[in-house]
Structure formats: structure tokens, C-alpha cells
């Protein structure tokens, strides 16, 4: 497969925030997702010029021995600091520098900060940069981005959205890259972010979650399988969520009078990592494995969640009586859209979906499937392709 310069939708959003909305932007995302490529491209075209620092490099770390003096000298340029979680003490320095630039009439576009650990980084930066920072999340390549560059959704689904995996010259090289990626996280990032957490146990949990893709989080069952306590499992899952490798999808639980499932569902966020953890090297291997449907569901959920307009949130809905919606989009406390996800070219709907839509009084009802045509289904729903529905959501529908 030929290398492609895939345009990422978030790039224009980062640029807009820096130019018009915030002195600093924190761009969060797992390693190798494309943050550095995006930042370098943005820096190269920044009107006032830019300075790029990678805190994994000792030479760049040394430039910040006197961070206040060095960063003050860079004004009015945009300063990009990669791997910012390696120097959390810089946040306090940035606050004073941002205020200085504001006093000089420079209100936006001071710093672009890149990091991998979402919750920890947000906590550190919010303590020092309250009111001065915008947070954006960069996910792996999604269906609309792949489709726009001629990459079939099945290739994206099989290989996942990390660019080096997606654009590898062969399935074998893609699979090897993903195996190395998993090993790197376990050997390098886990010790950095959680020094006392055994990487082998975390790998086993990660693999269990891949086997149970899209299942309810059963802490007791996972704890028994790992030989650890339930609180320990929670800490392990918290770390994978924090590193943006796992998603906890919360249940909608505000319907009075309904016996609702209140346990979150858990997804390994990148479908390619699901397949690598399960040893599935090719699309044929994925299609022949029981995880296929749940894996496609995870791909769809990631694409759709990252296509939501501002102010919308994603949930799932399930009652003990069998009413269920895979993805429920809410805005202003009111359910707006019910989405079912089917890995079938001829999707059909169960009665539980219709009952859930009735419970929630949702009129917009969609069924995501692997095709591209739209056609009506029962319960007032319409079948739609994944990239098309992402476009509907981006339009604010």
C-alpha cells in the first residue's frame, strides 16, 4: 500500500483553537497516533514562526533547564512541546508566560502541548492553566478520513487506525507493527505512568478485554481470572483508559421506572489492536473469529464518538427486559439519536431496539452496516454506512 498523507479532521480544529480561542492547546492521544506529524505541519506554516521541543530528547530537555528564560525568548512564536508529561513542572512556568503575552496584546496561539496520558495531564495542566488552555483529543484514523483517501473501511477495520499500521506495505508488516506497539506500551509506558503495576498482568487484562470486546465490565470475573482483587482490576482499567487505549462507555440511566443496566461497557479503542491482541493477522482471520461483530461495533463507536458536534455525548442503553441501543447520542440531557451497529450487508433489527427508542422517545434512528446505500428498516430506522453517518453527526444533526 502506497504511503498517503492522510488529512486529519482535527488538524483544522487545533489550528482554529490556537488562532482564535486559546493561548494554549493540549492535544491528547496515544503514542504513534500522528500528534507529532500534525504539530510539525502546523508549526511549519505558523505565521509568527514556531519552536518545536521533544522532551524525549536530552538536548531539548536541557534547553528547559531555565524554562522561563528560554520560553520567554521564543515570543511571539508558537512553542510546541512534545511529550509534555515528562516535565509537568513546566505548567506553572507557562501560566506566567501566557499572562505576560496577554498583557502585551498577544491573546492566542502561544503553546501547543502534546501528551499521551489524558487524565493525569489534564489534572496537571488544569491546576496551573485554568482558563488558559483548550483540550483536544486525537484518535487513530477514522472511517471518513480513510474513505476520503481511498482506503476501504475493511482495511481500516482489520488493521486499525494507527497510521503506520494502516499504511503498511502488507498485512504481515501491519500486524508486526501492532505487536511491537503493544510490547512498547507494556515495557515503556506502563513503568513510566504506573511503576508498581506489573506489565504481564496488564497484558493479560488487555487481551481479556479484547476477547470480551464491547462486553459489560465484570470486575469480579476479571479479578478472579487474573488472581488479583477487584480494586486492582479497576486500577488496571483506569490506566488503559487514561492512556486512551480502552474506552468505558457509560450506560444511560435516567429513565424513571425502568430497570436499567448500570454497568459500563468496555472497548479496546482501536480495532487493529483488538486483532493483534487476539493473534488475527488478516481480514479473513478476523471474519472467521467470534469477535468480528463486536470489533466492527468498536470501530463504529470510535468513529461516531469523534464525529459528535460540541455539546453532544455518547452512551449506551439497556434494560433488564431486553430493550437496547448500541449508541445513544444525547444533547442537553435529552436523547437525540439511537444507533444500532450491525456487521451484516442485510441488517435486521430486533424488537428490543424499537422498544428502547419508544422508551427514550427518540425519532432519529440509524443502523450502521458495512454498505454504502441508505434504505429503510423496521422500527422507523434507516440503514446507513459508517462514514455517511459520521458526516451526518458532523453536520450537527
From TrEMBL:
SUPFAM superfamilies, A to Z: P-loop containing nucleoside triphosphate hydrolases, Winged helix' DNA-binding domain
InterPro entries: AAA+_ATPase (IPR003593), AAA_14 (IPR041682), DUF4143 (IPR025420), P-loop_NTPase (IPR027417), WH-like_DNA-bd_sf (IPR036388), WH_DNA-bd_sf (IPR036390)
A Pfam family annotated for this UniProt entry: AAA_14
Record keyword Magnesium present: no
Keywords: ATP-binding, DNA-binding, Nucleotide-binding
Record GO terms (molecular function): ATP binding
Occurrences of domain AAA+ ATPase (ranges): 21-114
Presence of keyword Nucleus: no
Superkingdom per UniProt: Bacteria
UniProt cross-references to Gene3D superfamilies, sorted A to Z: P-loop containing nucleotide triphosphate hydrolases, Winged helix-like DNA-binding domain superfamily/Winged helix DNA-binding domain
Name of this chain's protein: ATP-binding protein
Organism: Diaphorobacter limosus
